[in-house]
């Protein structure tokens, strides 16, 4: 598969170790590649908890300080996926360069052309291929999560808010989200769409587990209310359960949150007889949400095709 080779140049000497833009002089003004910016080691809820980010600005926002509204999409990737340069150096990653983080950002930019698109790189890639979102949820070395309730000091909501705030400040976006605080810390018109793919869905699941506590926290509730949509794309991880949320208490809270919920799957995950629990949990996730009055959108993609890793990745294009 052919892949776009994205080249990086330094934004400035002061940001050499922390912020890199993909634009080059030969790229036409306003091109997607010119709007793509890499931000390295962005701190979250604690200075030691950092994630690398990719930011794709909206089509009308190619210069620092410009922006179109304050709508944001945050994407959490799956296994194998990494920055293109790093994937090209790994035997397991090189065949899948079309699904590098840069390529996914550009794909999401076409899906959400009027929003800022953020791709969050997992803080650890075990053996260069197993994504571990330990900054968002307790996980083992292969990325299988151990979900827990909301904590005012750490957890997915706290880390995500601080990560976006620091990322927006470093990217010099106007009217940035503040890392903490009540209504005054959330800019007017700020909205958030969360998208998890494969292993990245563990972050969305942890968000669901934290929802009740976060909504009750006056310092976090306004940020929680800014989440408009959540997309689960073919969720999967190496644990033997909890690939999809099945806890009724958690799903009741999620159903009452007024967040638009979307579940897109492929036979690769939900029709695998060796991991039959994934399909059962997905069906229970949908059924329970509907019983609690939610109307999640749902679709099985590539139903007539044999399960494959190719179709698994393609859901990123088709959802």
UniProtKB/TrEMBL annotation:
The keyword Membrane appears for this protein: no
One GO CC annotation: mitochondrion
The entry's keywords: Signal
InterPro entries on file: C2orf69_mit (IPR018881)
Lineage: superkingdom: Eukaryota
Stored Pfam families: C2orf69
Signal peptide residue numbers: 1-18
Descriptive protein name: UPF0565 protein C2orf69 homolog
The UniProt record lists the keyword tRNA processing: no
Species of origin: Gymnodraco acuticeps
